[in-house]
Here is the input.
Amino acid sequence: MCFLKDTRSSRVKEARLANFEKLVKEGFYDGLTFHRIIPGFMIAEGWCHQGMSEIIETPDMHIRQQKMAEAGDAAIVLPGGCGSMAELFELITWKQLGLYLNPIVILNTKGYYDALLQQLEQAAEEQFMRKEHLQIWRVAQTAEEAVQLATSTPMWDTNVRRFAAV
Here is the structure.
């Protein structure tokens, strides 16, 4: 993941470069710049996209996730593999505990996350999480909707710890 910085309003959105780069190049998000937070070992492997506005190197994945959460005003999680899902669940957990209060938007392109979203609903139905926690994230079908939700969804209530435990 990388995060996008909106230089017009200082809003920051996390996103995967491959999915937003084309829209930015076409002028859809005029004023956005790309920033990549990436562990040193990924740079050594050549996994760092060129053409970034800024590259921030971290010693490991844990520091990377922490820095992304601190830098971003919102998270947009795009379809991806285990790493993307791990980052999503870490943000959901942090938000559940009141450690991260910004919007989380799941980009559910072509229903990619349907099964995962259904599993989360089942967890709430079976009381492994509170129904209130289903409001931790928003779901978008398009990149445009994801950015709109990321910039319009209010911050999470700072008193969430009162219902963090099941």
Remarks:
- The helical segments are 17-25, 40-44, 61-71, 82-96, 114-125, 143-152.
- Residues 8-19 have pLDDT under 50 and may be disordered.
- The two ends are 31 Å apart (CA to CA).
